[in-house]
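Consider the tokenized backbone below.
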């Protein structure tokens, strides 16, 4: 799980770096988005012939690794007892997977979702053993991508849609439809309750709050202008410009930090974050659809469109959560499917030459450029509501990580508890997304920073995550405003640069 989480952090960090390069070099954006969406347009058979020997070599290596990888299903202790090195086996398997992925990306661009959907489809078709899945998953992936390419070629659009985008739009609903039939191995183990390692959580939370106040004052009063770095000379003139941005970033960061803690505890999955439920992507899709529907849009129309998209995503998740088979893994997998589908739709629009794409891209990157009093009010109301309601669920959050059986023994119905917690997560996250864009990386970082700092109990971790999220986003907004003055960098991109390497270091130390 630490390996998967670290891979997700690296992926988001590198994605932020790519988005930053796009913002700095707008003239290459169309080509880059087409490549990122995965285009199968070819002028000959050179690409297919180049991929063939790589695929053959990877097939041989996968066949040699089939038995060692199958032994990993016995957990590390059982595999080690049979003379297998789990670390070396995982490294070998990762090397083959990375080599295959690199070959495909080099040839046709980034084609996502096939690697997630194809093994699930193979399992649904009856492939139970690892050798069966290794044989069936490539066939399922080939069929899915071939079908997507055929649809892309015959779609009634002026320009051909990238096959990778069609794959996401086709595979995500298919996976959602087949999800109730999918038998998932438990990906999360129940965890015993632990005590805070800080000794005095109230004292450390107070120090964190004091640090946040100091950082807020510095963000408002210290910065960079044409004369260089220094303290603000005309504070009354600068506060109306800086205060809404700083306050919006602070409140939105607190909401995302608490949302990440709630998700990770209610699912028992350290990978859980607002983006994993697709809520932020749903809000982005609402704005994208608004861009397609009307020639221009203002601030309030953007807020309304994002709200509709986020609430529609919430409605889908609530329907899934009401099913008896709605295990945490299924809920997260459904969120990933929704996020992938929404991202594919957004990629189609971003690949165009519409001049409004610049502002849309800035908003999707987590920009506070246009944050004003309406955005600040929305983020503040979401933060206050979450701070008032989330502590009431502390007992649930302590029990849910124990697993379903212990939770029922303690008088808690896990399905009903998750169903009640889901709106508490989704609605504030939607409000934060309305205010500042689809920022979700903070929701992944803040809970881990709080936990690895010693806050293990539910309520202290919630409050510490709120402080960490607010501090990360506030610092990212200040750096984005000052680093390359007079130009600005979206706070969402810098949040990944600030928190990503630090989170990797904490995972390395505390894993």
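A designed sequence for it:
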């Amino acid at each position: 799980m630490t390996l998967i989480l670290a891979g997700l952090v690296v992926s988001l960090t590198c994605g932020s770096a790519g988005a930053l390069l796009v913002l700095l070099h707008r003239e290459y954006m169309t080509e880059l988005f087409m490549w990122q969406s995965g285009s199968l347009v070819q002028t000959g058979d050179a690409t297919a012939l180049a991929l063939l020997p790589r695929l053959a070599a990877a097939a041989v290596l996968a066949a040699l690794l089939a038995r060692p990888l199958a032994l990993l299903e016995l957990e590390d202790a059982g595999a080690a007892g049979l003379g297998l090195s789990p670390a070396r086996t995982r490294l070998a398997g990762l090397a083959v997977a990375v080599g295959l992925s690199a070959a495909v990306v080099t040839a046709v661009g980034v084609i996502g979702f096939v690697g997630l959907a194809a093994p699930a489809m193979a399992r649904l078709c009856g492939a139970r053993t690892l050798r069966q899945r290794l044989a069936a998953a490539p066939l399922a992936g080939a069929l899915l991508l071939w079908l997507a390419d055929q649809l892309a070629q015959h779609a009634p659009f002026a320009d051909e849609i990238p096959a990778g985008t069609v794959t996401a739009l086709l595979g995500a609903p298919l996976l959602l439809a087949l999800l109730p039939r999918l038998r998932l191995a438990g990906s999360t183990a129940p965890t015993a309750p632990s005590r805070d390692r800080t000794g005095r959580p109230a004292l450390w939370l107070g120090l964190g709050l004091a640090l946040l106040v100091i950082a807020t004052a510095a963000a408002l009063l210290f910065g960079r202008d044409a004369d260089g770095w220094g303290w603000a000379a005309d504070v009354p003139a600068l506060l109306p410009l800086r205060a809404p941005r700083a306050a919006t970033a602070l409140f939105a960061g607190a909401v995302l930090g608490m949302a990440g803690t709630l998700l990770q505890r209610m699912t028992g999955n350290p990978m859980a974050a607002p983006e994993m439920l697709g809520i932020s992507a749903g809000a982005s899709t609402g704005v994208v659809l608004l861009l397609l529907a009307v020639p221009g849009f203002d601030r309030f129309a953007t807020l309304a469109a994002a709200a509709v998209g986020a609430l529609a995503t919430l409605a889908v998740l609530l329907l899934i959560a009401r099913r008896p088979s709605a295990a945490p893994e299924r809920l997260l997998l459904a969120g990933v499917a929704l996020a992938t589908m929404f991202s594919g739709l957004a990629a189609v629009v971003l690949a165009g030459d519409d001049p409004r794409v610049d502002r849309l891209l800035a908003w999707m990157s987590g920009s506070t450029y246009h944050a004003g009093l309406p955005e600040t009010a929305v983020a503040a109301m979401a933060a206050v509501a979450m701070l008032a309601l989330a502590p009431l669920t502390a007992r649930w959050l302590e029990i849910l990580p124990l697993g379903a059986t212990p939770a029922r023994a303690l008088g808690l119905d896990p399905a009903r508890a998750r169903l009640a917690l889901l709106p508490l997560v989704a609605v504030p996250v939607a409000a934060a997304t309305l205010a500042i864009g689809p920022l979700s990386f903070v929701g992944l970082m803040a809970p881990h920073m709080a936990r690895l700092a010693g806050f293990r109990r539910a309520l202290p971790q919630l409050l510490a995550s709120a402080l960490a999220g607010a501090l990360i986003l506030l610092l990212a907004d200040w750096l984005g405003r000052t680093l390359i003055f007079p130009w600005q960098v979206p706070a969402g991109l810098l949040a990944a640069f600030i928190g990503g390497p630090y989170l990797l270091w904490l995972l390395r130390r505390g894993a």
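The radius of gyration is 23 Å.
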